[in-house]
Amino acid sequence: MESSPHPRDPDDARAALVIADEARRRLTTGLRLPAGFSPLLAGGIAVQVGAASYGIAAQTATGVAVALAGAAVFLGVAAFILHRFSRINGVRVDGLASQVVLAAGAGASLVYLGALAVGIVAAFQSRWWLVAVASVAAGVGCALGARHWWRTYRHDPAAHARGASPRMLGLLAVAACLGCATLLVLG
Question: Rounded to two decimals, what is the model's pTM?
């Protein structure tokens, strides 16, 4: 006895793809960012940049502790934002985690790195008002970058959903903390 699969009708496959695309579109358009997303993200990044600027310029154990505390504040804010997003929507979007934690967009990364550099140089010169301005600029730039990514993600989720996994983000955070601890011990 020979069994041959029944040939599928190409129109059925197309119809199934159309239904799946429509379900993805409904899910994507239904996703919402938590209230206060941008101000929380901007504040967390501003604290981290300010603390890092001070810590690097101080070049003391206290400075490293302040820099680590700033990183902890930022990671706490990022975890809170991502947890609220997941709780509100019932899903996790890895690309959003990358945007929030790593400022993975090109524009956000440039703003962050530029503001951090300005903040560090200003801290070495004890120009604390400029450290504050650079910190706020980093926070606002990264928050705007995350918002821009969110809009583009909602228009084409398949192209923008990829990002670093939460496990990878955790490993990067641990590596950064170990690097700072090493600097503290050796410095």
Answer: 0.75
